[in-house]
From TrEMBL:
This is NgoFVII family restriction endonuclease. Pfam families: DUF3427, DUF8090, Helicase_C, PLDc_2, ResIII. InterPro entries: DUF3427 (IPR021835), DUF8090 (IPR058403), Helicase/UvrB_N (IPR006935), Helicase_ATP-bd (IPR014001), Helicase_C-like (IPR001650), Helicase_Restrict-Modif_Enz (IPR050742), P-loop_NTPase (IPR027417), PLD-like_dom (IPR025202). Keywords: Endonuclease, Hydrolase, Nuclease. Residues 229-381 form the Helicase ATP-binding domain. SMART domains: DEXDc, HELICc. PROSITE patterns: HELICASE_ATP_BIND_1, HELICASE_CTER. Coiled coil: none annotated.
């Protein structure tokens, strides 16, 4: 079989592209940001499944090496080793890279002595074949993920001439190369001449060291224009939401320079920020030094034109009375998410500026206070973390989700006592991991966030005891003490600051190149705040290393939620975001060790993400932002919560609003039933055809559309269709598609009838159009459903790896729906379509079936399946599968993670064909100890399952 597959692959690649073939196909690889396809992903997947490897690459950077460190760590856990052959050609490889290579225990490294060594080849040995990738990409982050590179992936068996030639050549080169050692690095370092640093694009410059004349970057220009337009429209308040390190202070200075206020007030919550802000303003706004003053516990420059004050001082009655309510025509509040405090509210109520600007990286608050309301819901500009990284405004980061210390089966958790948290073996474990993942330049300047003060203090002592200079800071330390320790970190006197309740925000330490998390993730906001401590650009670093030690914490599910920005509260989305991390573009990267992934999955399984309390929080956040009752479309548009989560729980949005205690007029029972039909049956998508018909009839106030009208509509919307789709769509709209039970349920609120080869509104629907609230809900469902489908490209058929319910599959494939979904069970067939639904990992206590079926993936392209019982070789479905030429067979997979998992959706894995000689009738025992006939067979999938999806569904790496 394997020889046949390789023969087909080679024929498809080099003779006839129309040949059906599988994953052994040669592949042309380029980095494609739009498709989220990168050479990096291919290399990581090859490493995950290989038995050994050898990389022959001339150039290696620390960031390039970082991209495969978690995969190498997982290989080390399995006892798998590899080799790397590199060079000193052109002086590209820095001594720091060679030190980093030595810290990888399961990789042997040698330095080629060949003159002009410039190879870029990656060879992986698998159980049944070998894969090699040759092209233009070195082991650098830019080459693996960003640059326009050409690479070709080829597959061979051991006796192939090309693979034998490559092996022989590599072995010869390896034997003649120099073994990497610390002694070799010491000698190399003596004569090493670093390459000139790359120039930074001027539009991305946000630090004053680059030029004496400061100009706005692209983001700042857009924000300035938006602020100007806001004021021109008559607004007197504005909010700027901008990730930490993107130049908010300079942005404010540019806007003040443009506004030219008679007097200006800058309010912050900490005094040490004032002086840095003044220096930035001076460079942009200009003027005399005497124009700038400070109002704080130490200074009282009340007459300054540009006054920079702490909130603690400006909020006092005495100073407010001395200044007067009309003292300033422009007031700016930095870190405005703190403005819910009484001191801020009092100050804002007292002063009456012509314009009030607020700036924050995190406007969402955990205490329910509405920052958006404070600024009249005027968001002048918004740039979040992912956007700022893509715009090259921040320093790239490499996030490593690693496993925390485990001893005798006990793992760090929220309740671990101090002795366990600071056990000397754990400290050694932490240091080994920190050294392994390293940092830019191998000279750490790190912040370590701990779970409690005594832990931070003790860990700092133990690090110092091991010769790693560290300090401990908490809220009990004075400002002067904090600034002294920060100066020691930046100057290199110490390597780490251990802390608990400070440094989440409002602190600027540009030289931080390592952020270490030794605590439970309490919230998305805090996670991003702590991550952001290291993202400010600085010439001392090329990237920031973030090492997150993941213990057995209940809130681990928040990690993929925070990194991806996915607030949908959809468990399967979070599981995929833990495995498929290509949502992080640019030069940043996310990687999880295998055990860390398992701990995150365990947390996702246990979390109640659709609880009433969680949904209320999401609802209130969006309502606060919009200043109105949000609709389903708002949730989809803003990414706050997947509308399907609401509908799965409450069936209709008006019911959800009642649960939110909104004072909304009630619908009639008939209207609510109609809304339930639209929400439950059509919001889930699958295809846009029915939704477009409904939208046209409502928007154009029509009561009837002919078939010709519908075809014209679908033509205008550029979606595929045929006669079968028309027949199917009309049967869905008039309910005749549905099985008898569902038809009876929905019939009292039927919205459409088929008439004269077209579709007509029922009298009920036509009369209900007078109810504007009902029609608002109806259009909300329609537009939200179309918005969801728009993200998939408005499909007319099934999309690979998309999720479907059984009845959505039947609808999209124009099949018959004659029994309820539970009755469909594992498969159904009609209209030359055969759909197989499989739940993997049913668990030992699975009671939903009389017989324990052993459906499973043999590998990424082969699936083993059993029919229902009792079935024999002569059963109708088996006869169809034995002679399947006129049938299309589809596979849908659901992973059941635990018995409380209510997930009803299946992932579409594509078409497949049975391997005829594997079809075999067998007897299997039932739960009541009887034997029944079933038929077993293997299938070959048309599309080999992508490794990330395969791992997600099976938990296995093949």
């Amino acid at each position: 079989m394997s020889d046949l597959l390789l023969n087909k692959a080679l024929k498809k690649a080099f003779i006839d592209k129309n040949v059906e073939s599988q994953y052994l196909n040669p592949k042309f690889i380029i980095n494609d940001t739009d498709k989220k396809e990168f050479l990096l992903s291919v290399l990581q997947q090859e490493l995950l499944s290989c038995q050994s490897f050898i990389l022959s690459v001339a150039f290696i950077t620390q960031d390039g090496l970082n991209t495969i460190k978690t995969q190498l760590s997982d290989l080390a856990d399995k006892g798998i080793k590899g080799r790397i052959l590199t060079s000193t050609y052109l002086g590209f490889n820095h001594p720091d890279v060679f030190h980093s290579l030595l810290n990888i225990p399961n990789v042997e490294v040698r330095i080629s002595n060949k003159s002009g060594f410039h190879s870029k080849g990656y060879l992986f040995t698998h159980q049944m074949h070998q894969t090699f990738i040759i092209g233009s990409s070195n082991l650098t982050m830019s080459a693996l993920k960003l640059n326009y590179e050409w690479n070709v992936k080829l597959t061979s068996y051991d006796n192939g001439e090309m693979i034998s030639t490559i092996h022989d050549h590599l072995e010869k080169e390896w034997e003649s190369a120099t073994i990497l050692s610390r002694e070799w690095i010491a000698e190399f370092s003596k004569t090493y001449q670093p390459l000139p640093k790359r120039m930074t694009r001027s539009e991305d410059i946000i630090t004053e060291e680059v030029s004496e004349y400061i100009v706005p970057n692209r983001m700042q220009k857009e924000a300035l224009n938006s602020l100007k337009e806001l004021r021109q429209s008559g607004e007197r308040k504005g909010l700027v939401v901008s990730a930490t390190g993107t130049g908010k202070t300079y942005l404010a200075a540019f806007d003040v320079a443009s506004y030219q206020p008679k007097r200006f007030l800058f309010i912050v919550h900490r005094e040490q920020i004032l002086h840095k802000a003044i220096e930035s303003f001076k460079k942009v706004v200009g003027g005399k030094d005497t124009d700038y003053g400070v109002l704080s516990g130490q200074k009282k420059d009340l007459d300054a034109k540009y006054l920079f004050s702490t909130i603690q001082t400006i909020s006092k009655d005495g100073y407010q009375e001395l200044l007067g309510p009309d003292a300033f025509d422009y007031i700016l509040i930095d870190e405005v998410h703190k403005a819910g405090a009484s001191s801020y509210i009092k100050t804002l109520n007292y002063f009456k500026p012509n314009f009030l600007l607020g700036m924050t990286a995190t406007p969402e608050r955990t205490d329910g206070f509405n920052i958006f309301e404070l600024f009249d819901y005027n968001i002048a500009y918004e740039i979040r973390l992912k956007d700022a990284l893509e715009e090259n405004l921040l320093c790239p980061f490499h996030y490593f989700g690693v496993t925390d210390y485990e001893r005798d089966g006990q793992v760090i958790s929220e309740t671990s006592d101090l002795t366990y948290l600071t056990y000397f073996e754990r400290v050694d474990f932490l240091i080994d991991k920190i050294n392994y993942y390293g940092c830019s330049g191998n000279n750490p300047k790190g912040l370590v966030f701990c779970s409690r003060k005594d832990e931070a203090k003790e860990l700092s002592r133990l690090f110092n005891q091991r010769g790693i200079a560290s300090s401990y800071l908490s809220g009990e330390n004075s400002i002067e003490e904090r600034e002294q320790v920060i100066e020691e970190l930046e100057s290199g006197k110490i390597h780490y600051i251990f802390t608990v309740d400070i440094f989440n925000e409002g602190i600027d330490i540009p030289k931080i190149n390592q952020v270490i998390m030794l605590r439970n993730t309490e919230s998305n906001i805090i996670f991003i705040q702590q991550l952001g401590r290291g993202l400010r650009k600085d010439e001392s670093k090329e990237f920031v290393t973030v090492i997150d030690f993941i213990g057995n914490y209940q809130n681990n599910y928040m990690i993929p939620m925070a990194l991806s920005g996915d607030s949908s509260r959809n468990k399967n989305n979070l599981r995929r975001d833990t495995i498929d991390v290509n949502y992080m573009t640019g030069l940043s990267a996310i990687n999880f060790e295998r055990v860390a992934k398992e701990r995150i999955f365990k947390s996702i399984d246990a979390a109640k993400l659709n609880s009433f309390a969680e949904l209320r929080k999401s609802y209130q956040r969006l309502k606060n932002r919009l200043n109105r009752i949000p609709m389903l479309y708002d949730f989809e548009e803003m990414g706050e919560l997947d509308p399907l989560v609401i509908i799965q729980r409450e069936k209709t949005y008006d019911q959800f609003l009642l649960k939110m205690k909104e004072d909304c007029p009630l619908l009639t029972e008939q209207e609510r039933l109609a809304l339930k039909f639209l929400s439950v049956e059509l919001l889930f998508g699958g295809r846009p055809h029915e939704l477009l018909v409904i939208k046209k009839m409502i928007m154009e106030n029509k009561t009837y559309l002919s078939s010709e009208d519908i075809y014209k509509l679908w033509d205008e919307e550029s979606i595929d269709y045929n006669q079968d789709i028309l027949v199917s769509a009309l049967s869905v709209l008039d309910l005749s598609f549905y099985e008898a039970g569902l038809q009876r349920n929905y019939r009292p609120a039927q919205l459409f009838d088929q008439k004269n080869n077209g579709i007509a509104m029922t009298d009920f629907f036509n009369s209900s159009r007078k109810n504007t609230l009902f029609m608002k809900y109806v259009m909300d469902v329609v537009t939200t459903g179309l918005k969801k489908l728009e993200k998939q490209g408005m499909p007319s058929t099934l999309c690979l790896y998309s999720k479907y319910r059984r009845k959505d599959v039947l609808r999209v494939l124009n099949m018959e729906f004659k029994q309820n979904e539970q009755g469909i069970g594992g498969y159904t067939y009609s209209n030359n379509q055969f759909a197989i639904f499989v739940t993997l990992d049913k668990g030992k206590d699975f009671k939903a079936s009389l017989m324990a079926y052993e459906d499973e993936f043999i590998d990424e392209e082969t699936f083993r399946w059993f029919t229902k019982s009792p079935r024999t070789i002569k059963s109708p479905e088996v006869q169809i599968l034995k002679d399947f030429k006129n049938w299309t067979i589809h596979l849908f997979i659901k992973r059941k993670y635990n018995q409380n998992d209510k997930e009803t959706d299946f992932y579409y894995l594509g078409e497949m064909e049975p391997i005829i000689d594997t079809i075999e009738q067998k007897e299997k025992p039932t739960s009541d100890n009887k034997l029944k006939n079933v038929v077993e067979m293997d299938f070959i999938l048309k599309h080999r399952v992508e490794p990330d999806m395969y791992e997600f569904l099976t938990g296995k790496i093949e």
